[in-house]
Amino acid sequence: MGLGLFNKLSILFFGLAVFLSLWTVPQRKYFKEKWIWLAGIIAFIFIIPYLIWQSKNNWEFLNFAQNYAGTHSYIASLSEFIWNQFIANNVFNFPVWLLGLFLLLFSKDWIKFRFFGITYIIHCRSKILFINADVFSSISSWFYQT
Questions:
Q1: Which pTM was predicted?
Q2: Phi-psi region of 98 (alpha: psi -120 to 50; beta: other; left: phi over 0)
Q3: Are 82 and 40 spatial neighbours (Cβ–Cβ below 8 Å)?
Q4: 64: part of which helix (H) or strand (E)?
């Protein structure tokens, strides 16, 4: 996670999905162990230099992202986002991965792997919420208040 933060901040969506989905499965007992919290601290340490640089440079990423989202990127609708999930996973494989997702979420034999199915659902849902919200404008206006 920490190394992923060096490359792309979108890994935070995945981290959020893992954190939230772990609370919903029996493996939540891992939150009682020190190692998961140590891993979170290490990931946070990796992002500290980035946050320091951003704060010294007037939160440049937020400014860039707000301008880029408003002028250069295409904002997909919910149906387009879901369709792109099918395309990326190969339309012909759709029955296979849909069956796999169904088994991960509902099969008693696969209950120890349910975490992965819930993580996928939360990850996709968080991206859908992020795409449909004007997040960068909201965050930027908060940082740039005068």
A1: 0.71
A2: alpha
A3: no
A4: helix 60-71
Tokens matching residue 59 = 């939160």
What's the token pair of residue 31?
Answer: 């939150």
Nearest-angstrom CA–CA distance, 4 and 20: 19
Rounded Cα distance between 134 and 132, Å, is: 7
Cβ 118 vs Cβ 21: under 8 Å: yes
Helix and strand totals (H; E) in the chain: 8, 0
| Annotated domain spans of the chain | 2-143
Question: Could you tell me the two tokens for 15?
Answer: 């981290």
C-alpha dist (Å) from residue 91 to 2, 56, 88, 95, 143: 33, 46, 8, 8, 42
- Largest Cα separation within the chain, whole Å, is 57
- Over residues 93-118, the pLDDT tens digits come to 888 988 999 999 999 999 999 999 99
